[in-house]
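agent: user wants the structure for Exostosin-2 from Cyprinus carpio. delegating to structure tool.
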Amino acid sequence: MCASVKYGSRGPALIPRMKTKYRIYYITLFSVVLLGLIATGIYYITLFSVVLLGLIATGMFQFWPHSIESSAEWSLDRRSVHDAPLVRIPMSSPIPERGDLSCRMHTCFDVYRCGYNPKNKIKVYIYPLQRFVDEVGVPISSTGLSREYNDLLSAISDSDFYTDDVSRACLFIPSIDVLNQNSLRIRETAQALAMLPRWDKGMNHLLFNMLPGGPPDYNTALDVPRDRALLAGGGFSTWTYRQGYDVSIPVYSPLSVEVDLPERQPGPRRYFILSSQTAIHREYRVELERLKEENGEALLLLDKCSNLSQGLASVRKRCYKGQVYDYPQILQESSFCVVLRGARLGQATLSDVLQAGCVPVIMADSYILPFSEVLDWKRASVVIPEEKLPEMYTILKSIPHRQVEEMQRQKWTSVNSPLFLPLIPPRSPGFTAVVLTYDRIESLFRVITEISKVPSLAKLLVVWNNQNKSPPEESLWPKVAVPLKVLRTKENKLSNRFFPFDEIETEAVLAIDDDIIMLTSDELQFGYEVWREFPDRLVGYPGRLHLWDHEMGKWKYESEWTNEVSMVLTGAAFYHKYFNYLYTYKMPGDIKNWVDAHMNCEDIAMNFLVANITGKAPIKVTPRKKFKCPECTAIDGLSLDQTHMVERSECINKFASVFATMPLKVVEHRADPVLYKDDFPEKLKSFPNIGSL
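agent: tool returned. relaying tokens verbatim.
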């Protein structure tokens, strides 16, 4: 395929633009890759606005993009890809190291390159197109620049992430196409990478590969030696995936993009299970045929059509006993669609299945699902061990119909992004109150009674942190109008309060201690209303501040009354439930273990985490300065130890060291109801009972 090249202010657009529906896939792909890198710690500066804009533009949280046509044409003269400079690779050129499996963001990535961000955007530089050949003129790739990789580069160069100033770049993307390893000469491709002027052992370089490995072993990661480069790969296994460094991406399927499939409402389908893959292992095929015999019409087992001539038309067809079905349209006729591993773990069928709105049944042991760092695949798929294939039908039949419909619904509605909600989320879902308790039963019951008066309360979860004592009998608990569930933990850890429990179905979470009995229902309702307007923030009541102690040369925790706030106590605070996931699974370094070992500072850790992700300060609501001044009284309780304040200062310094920055932001304002102090009849105020200091 001959490609054209354009050099302009927005970077190298290398071949004529395809229809926008092809390119949207790559814009979406790159935006989610960036989000994955952000979530794992690549960037410690304010990024929320960047990713938000990218997501809005691309509809990222639709599992796959829909078709959008464009009539945009080239505005500059086209030139052939053959006009790109020819670069000969000496045989003696250095070869990068194989790839450091121990690489993590803090060891193999230079965050200081990302410091130049006047508009708070990650800047990405794309190397100019070059044609690499060996000493005798043989290209390093048999296919050159693929259409898919060109579309990916074009999407990046057209985005706000792109910069043509190499000195401002945070990430570097080679114009060397390594999407398909089958087309590459491994040694020569590695030498070409090492010749890039900013290579520096692959530091801050990002490679995209969808088809890794080759016969007979089919390695699950790109075999090209790449030093410390980050890899966005389409077939990672748990053995080759560097968690918190690499990004797992889906394998591209042109069939999904080329066909417009209508939206289907959740509900039963004509078939219960459908298998459409044409090159699966014989043992799997035999087992599927056995399941077909046992379950009849409930399972449709398709294969390639032997009676059709080879070509594009046959690729879009599947057959069963001479009957021909359109593909991928037939996928919409089944509740569940099988996605089995092939020679490679990553299969393009997964893309087709998601686009069709069919619930994927994934059987590929050790496979790292695409964007598993930021997507909760349990909400939209079923993962079954390969050895359980004979039991697949029974396993799927055990899933309640309501859960199946919810999985189907995930394909057509936006996955409620953990950070990127509408400006004001819908009022109806309300919030889930998560109460951490040990054995203060009387106080716990009072808290439950008070919280139950809040109009927007949707559910109450009590995290029972006492392994030596059982919770009270059900008949003894306060009678409330919302569901109440007690969750028993295996260990007494403060971090249990931030665990992403499946029972949390609302976007908003109220974390509250079992002794916070002084907050009024108006205060809590107002706090929730403020969170609805700022769903990416921590919204709390008593504020705290971090200060730099010049004499000691370190950070200090300050709880006295000041004009500034940089933290809110999570003894009662609203936040988005996704931060539970980040706290539990993505907290940098050993912070979570530190918190659990010291039984302190989980609130400071959460403030650090949210500020680091969003680049924003918390929001203090209402004038309340304290719950009961735990730092300055001498009654019973965890926070009353004399060393408490010193230890919290130690926490701030410890966390700042782990984050390699001080993410906390200082503000000098709080949120109060509009008529809070106005001389106005109380009955006309929305929140008359705001409480005292």
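agent: one observation worth passing along. The radius of gyration is 28 Å.
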